[in-house]
Amino acid sequence: MNHKRDEWLSHLLSSEPANRAQAESALRDLYAATGLPAPNYFFWFDSPFKTVLAMILLTAVKDSFMRQMVAGLERIATERKLLVVVREEMLRASSQPNWDALARVTGESLSTGVTLSGPMPAKSIHAEVTVSRLKLYSNVTDAVSHFDEKDPLQRAEHYLRNVMSGQTRWGTINPLIPSSFNRHYTFSMMAADEAAAEGREAPPAVAAAWQLARSAGAWWPFAHSVVISDRPVELHVNTDHLLHREGGPAALFRDGMQVWGWNGHAMREEWIMRPETIPARDLKHFDAAFRAYAAARSPVGNPKTKLKPSSILQKEVPQAAAEEQIAELRKHNDGRLPFFDRYVAGEHEVVWWELVQLGSSVREDPHAADALAVAYETMRRVKANILRVTAQLKALGYTFAHEPHELPGPKVRRQIAQLEKMAGILPLSLRAFYEVVGAVDWTGQHPGLVPRMDSVAPDPLVVFPIQDALDECKNGWREESDTATIVIAPDDLHKSDTSGGPPYEISVPDLNADSKLLNERHDCIL
């Protein structure tokens, strides 16, 4: 039997392109064995992330919970863009004129355990497969699978599902990825069934399910259609066949979607690529192998040219008038502020990207004055937008839980100097935010924007005042280590008065122009 399990382990971890013709043929056979008409449409996607979005969109036609999930996804810019892409791809594949027409011809969901509030499917493919596989055993208890950590196939499959569902980048939809058909008919069960059927013909439904699993990735059935995923183009595992990779994603799909894992556990991209940003108080909870990896990648101890910070960083640059401020920064730089001039001309994203690429040298001449000019101008625009949106929210009847905007106080530069002495150097973006904007807190209530008991936390903008960070420092939160964190805001669940996870933070010291926000699933930067 072991050779069968080895074969199915190789199918589970395959990075070969899906055999789409073979998979579609197997699906037709599987539907026929269940007494269903063959699917009219096969919606292929390059990763399970897009595939599960397609499943959600189609299931939402008759399921109110899924409709709430779609509504929540529509509020998040990255997810909203991806939903548009998925809809467009499905419309092209089906040649339907619009989404309503497509929803009518694809049919209701046939997935067990996915439909939560809509009608249960009249026929269940999973039920047919279950009945068919029981025929392979003289004692039906032999068909029951019990998890065995020592079994390589069961272990690899179990941890693969956990890593996929634990990715923070697409945190809202990831838990639904394991709800595919193979959650109910696992590769481990298929290996056992094929061994039990050796020497005789397997029931049609079971044979079709095997063929499909050998040919493609995760899939979800509908009455007249199937949404189905290709396999990864890269998949990296350790000696125990668990997703694992140092210095890159453990799995990469053809549409660019990445999966980050360490010895079978879900990871964040920044933990793998920038482990030095993990606060010491959190790093100690990782396994010894990861701590050694983090230490090896840490820049601490590596010989570097000593940084020579520009004197402009210590100078009292005028804040009252933007013209005076820029004039002072130009004077320091002999009249040249190329990054600032490009930023004002409209190259917003690329200028910030280039400033970040400078690393700590952004604090040296001639970059420091230029970077400060960009940071101050950016935060002036942030401040203007905050004032405008705050006024609009008030006009809509939005009830703020706290003062929505707090301007910086007269001692803000002294507070910044004190915070940097106690905690560590701040990235230029946060320093400029404290100097120009101050603080913002848009938590509150509104029947349309923030409905009670909604399924999705809206995550309103919050940046705590600098005094809060100083108070935490004075209360002795900082550990004896080379790095620490400054709390920027509560996470999205805490903002909705629900017990959630760790707050949004940045790691300090950070000598860069900008910093990545920790514990936030959209890969935001400040």
- Helix/strand structural class: mainly alpha
Count up the helices.
22
| Overall morphology | elongated
Instruction: Quote the distance from N terminus to C terminus.
Output: 54 Å
Q: Kindly report the spatial arrangement of strands forming the biggest sheet.
A: 1-3-2
* Percent of residues in β-strands: 5-15%
> Mean pLDDT, as a whole number?
88
**Biggest sheet character:** 3 strands, mixed
Enumerate the spans where pLDDT stays under 50 for 5 or more consecutive residues. none
What would you say this structure looks like, in words?
The protein is 44% helix and 9% strand. By secondary structure, it is mostly helical. It folds into two domains: 2-243, no CATH class; 311-508, no CATH class. β5 (251-252) and β6 (258-259) form a beta hairpin. α2 (20-34) runs antiparallel to α11 (204-215), α3 crosses α5 (77-94) and α16 packs parallel to α18 (367-395). The longest helix is centred in the last third of the chain and has 29 residues, at 367-395. The chain is elongated.
Topology:
Blueprint (H helix, E strand, L loop, with lengths): L1 H11 L7 H15 L6 E5 L2 H12 L4 H11 L2 H18 L4 H8 L18 H10 L17 H14 L15 H4 L2 H10 L7 H12 L3 E3 L3 E5 L4 E2 L15 E2 L5 E2 L1 E2 L2 E2 L2 H5 L6 H4 L4 H10 L24 H11 L5 H7 L3 H10 L9 H29 L3 E2 L4 E2 L5 H11 L5 H9 L2 E3 L2 E2 L16 E2 L2 H9 L9 E6 L2 H4 L8 E5 L18
Parallel strand pairs: 1-3
Antiparallel strand pairs: 2-3, 4-5, 5-6, 7-8, 9-12, 10-11, 11-13, 14-15
Helix pairs in contact: 1-8, 1-10, 2-11, 3-5, 7-11, 15-18, 16-17, 16-18, 18-20, 19-21
